[in-house]
Write a structure and sequence with these properties.
Helix 1 links the parallel strand 1 and strand 2. Strands 1, 2, 3, 4, 5 and 6 form a 6-stranded parallel β-sheet that branches. It is globular, with a radius of gyration of 16 Å. It is α/β, with parallel strands linked by helices. It is 39% helix and 16% strand. It has one domain: Rossmann fold (3-Layer(aba) Sandwich), CATH 3.40.50.360. The chain starts with a strand and ends in an 11-residue tail after the last helix. It binds flavin mononucleotide. The site of flavin mononucleotide has 16 residues, from helix 1. Flavin mononucleotide binds next to helix 1.
């Protein structure tokens, strides 16, 4: 089983990246055999989708092909998305435009939103409503919101992090992994050739 963890912040050394690392360790604690593909969109700084992508030159050559291949061979996705201006980040939206070859198709996705304050609901609403049509990602019905992100530090959380957060994360990750295992057979019976894009 392979899981991609996508950190969708625009900032280097972001809270989203830091939280992605905790989630990676949590997943490995639940199942040491999971392969993790970590993707830090801040570090990669992929350009916005443009028609140039089709030419396969520059970053759209070897670099993108390797990312696309890693996403394609993943069985599930965790997208760690900060709230910027009450929205999902442009980097988060961009990756859904860039992945036009079925990389996400009919695979479970878990949204983890991050806020330094009391936000975090908007990126979830936005991704749930607008990212799935052509990618066919299957967002699971649970999500995680990390508020007061700077105080999130498993084992020694700050006073603004609720006590139940770690057990909630463990519950959601277990649920996500159950979706990942059980949705695998579904992909064998899906014909994407006739209707590759959603309606
Ligand atoms: C451009 C920008 C806009 C932001 N807008 C919001 C916002 O609307 N709501 C919110 O809760 N936090 C907002 N934040 C703060 C983020 O929650 C904070 O940076 C947090 O650490 C997660 O982002 P990071 O992963 O980039 O560190 C904003 C941050 C930036 C850089």
């Amino acid at each position: 089983m392979k899981i991609s963890i996508i950190s969708a912040s625009h900032r280097m050394n972001s809270q989203s990246k830091r939280i992605s690392n905790f989630l990676k360790n949590d997943l490995l604690n639940l199942n040491p055999n999971i392969k993790i593909f970590p993707l830090d969109l801040a570090k990669l700084a992929l350009p916005l989708w443009s028609p140039d992508k089709k030419k396969g030159e520059g970053i759209w050559g070897k670099t993108w092909n390797s990312i696309s291949k890693n996403l394609d061979s993943s069985d599930g996705f965790i997208i760690v998305v900060p709230e910027y201006g009450g929205m999902a980040t442009p980097a988060a939206k961009n990756i859904f435009l860039l992945c036009g070859n079925g990389e996400f198709a009919h695979k479970p996705g878990l949204i983890v939103s991050v806020s330094s304050g009391n936000g975090g609901a908007y990126p979830i609403a936005e991704l749930r409503s607008s990212s799935y049509k052509n990618t066919h990602i299957m967002w699971i019905p649970e999500n995680i919101i990390i508020r007061n992100a700077e105080e999130f530090n498993p084992g020694e959380h700050g006073s603004n992090i609720p006590k139940w957060i770690d057990s909630r994360i463990e519950y959601v990750l277990n649920l996500f992994l159950a979706y990942v295992s059980n949705m695998k057979p579904l992909r064998k019976i899906i014909n994407r050739k006739d209707f590759g894009n959603g309606m």
